[in-house]
Write a structure and sequence with these properties.
The complex is a heterodimer of chains A (228) and B (199). With 228 residues, chain A is of the alpha+beta class. Chain A has one domain. Chain A is built from three helices and 13 strands; from the N terminus they run H-E-E-E-E-E-E-E-E-E-H-H-E-E-E-E. In chain A, a hairpin with a 3-residue loop joins strand 10 and strand 11. Chain B is mainly beta. Classes of the chains: A alpha+beta (228), B mainly beta (199). At the A-B interface, strand 10, strand 11 and strand 12 of A face strand 8 and strand 9 of B. Chain B: Keywords: Signal.
């Protein structure tokens, strides 16, 4: 009888743990103006969205009612303490709703700041607006070159990541204008990292790229903070 | 303060339903026809059918022959559609517990018109995220026919002018432009009141 009670108790605890683990899944509240994008929140919903070159980009493949085992997106933060640069990588997908396909697409935001030397310093950027028309800050889409070389990076993330850190592939956008607004960066051990952005630039082939109506709300983990 | 007022009104409603000896008690039931009213031209909203089940009472002050006052508690299931190719879900369900407060006016012996407010709380909703408000306040307007019979048909419309979702709107460069409001509750119920006792 005791064994049965223990078994029931264990099952109950397991169910509670399983359900509580679901709480970590991304929370996508669709924007009524553009339902492919999440509304702007700042509570660690782990979603992002933007309109990239007139296509919907978001961090979540299932919108409103998605599968409970959607993986949490990993937001790498790369700190270059020598050159005073901080890089955020936003993973996501360009969604094609006509044929129900998606294409991987990262947004890279590379900022100049001498305030961040460690993960614990990140809240110093709370409520900070970065003007991307300034020559010291830039944001861009990961170009095809990186994909072609590391098209299996999703399974071998370290290789891709090392490549991204390699300054030889760093791309500097041309004629860039826009903003990257960190609206909230605070917390205890993990930080809530939320903000809005929008920018446009020309790439090396003088092709104009637009990233508009951007919004993100993630939890930053110390395990995602790297030094260059 | 507002929350305390709402709680107080709900307690009063329940007390009046279950504690009053001189009330006309009745069970209300019927299908609901609900819609979520949207502003966005990106969203298409359509009616769906749910159900309402509740218990109401009615007081008639002795010096007011044509006026009476109703309260009650009811379960209100509302089903509706919000459609856009970019949203996986089309059909939405809400289950509210609501507390109506109605003023009734007898137009004839067999026809009654009523109006009032309804306080509600979503026990369940497919719009379940934290950003959607679970509390609702709505205005009611309706008619009741054959009010002095044991079984009396009624029709009531409920409209909440307050949206369930407030969200920040941003321009293409990420600057805040204001607040957007979306999803107002509307439903009609066509049902019957089954009287348990009379005045």
């Amino acid at each position: 009888m005791i064994f049965k009670n223990n078994l029931a108790y264990t099952a109950l605890v397991a169910i509670i743990l399983l359900l509580s683990s679901c709480l970590d899944n991304p929370v996508f509240v669709f924007d009524p103006i553009e339902p492919g994008l999440p509304i702007y929140t700042q509570r660690g919903t782990d979603v992002a969205g933007a309109i990239i070159n007139d296509s919907i980009w978001n961090s979540e493949q299932e919108v409103n009612g998605g599968l409970i085992w959607n993986e949490k997106e990993f937001i790498p933060v790369i700190c270059d303490t020598i050159n005073n640069r901080l890089t955020f990588v936003f993973p996501g997908y360009i969604i094609n709703y006509q044929n129900d396909t998606k294409t991987r697409q990262e947004i890279i935001v590379n900022l100049e700041t001498n305030r961040i030397k460690s993960f614990e310093d990140l809240p110093l950027l709370d409520q900070t607006k970065f003007d991307l028309s300034n020559q010291f800050h830039y944001a861009y889409l990961v170009n095809q070159e990186v994909y072609d070389k590391y098209n299996n990076y999703h399974y071998y993330f370290e290789n891709y990541y090392e490549h991204l850190l390699d300054s030889s592939v760093d791309f500097k956008p041309i004629n860039q204008i826009g903003n990257f607004n960190i609206r909230r960066l605070s917390g205890q051990e993990d930080f809530i990292f939320a903000g809005t952005f929008g920018f446009e630039y020309e790439d090396s082939l003088n092709i104009k790229n637009t990233v508009y109506h951007g919004r993100f709300d993630f939890t930053l983990l110390k395990s995602g903070f790297f030094y260059k | 303060m507002r929350r305390k007022t709402r709680t107080l009104l709900m307690v009063v409603a329940l007390a009046m339903v279950f504690c009053s000896a001189k009330a006309q008690l009745r069970v209300s039931a019927g299908p609901t026809f609900s819609k979520s009213i949207v502003n966005s031209d990106q969203l298409n909203s359509e009616f769906g059918t749910g159900f309402l089940l509740g218990i109401r009472n009615r007081f008639r002050p002795e010096n007011l022959k044509s006026l009476s006052f109703s309260t009650g508690v009811q379960l209100c299931h509302r089903k509706y559609k919000i459609e856009n190719p970019k949203i996986d879900r089309e059909s939405y369900n809400d289950l509210y517990v609501t507390f109506p407060f109605l003023f009734n006016f007898d137009i004839t012996e067999f026809l009654l018109v009523n109006t009032g407010v309804e306080l509600g709380y979503a026990l369940f909703s497919n719009l379940k995220e934290f950003e959607y408000k679970r509390r609702t306040t709505a205005f009611l307007f309706g008619f009741e026919f054959l009010q002095n019979r044991d079984v009396a048909p009624f029709i009531t419309a409920s409209y909440s002018p307050w949206e369930r979702l407030d969200y920040e709107t941003i321009d293409k460069f990420g600057n805040t432009t204001g607040t957007g409001y979306e999803f107002k509750n509307f439903y009609m119920v066509i049902g019957v009141n089954i009287y348990i006792n009379d005045f």
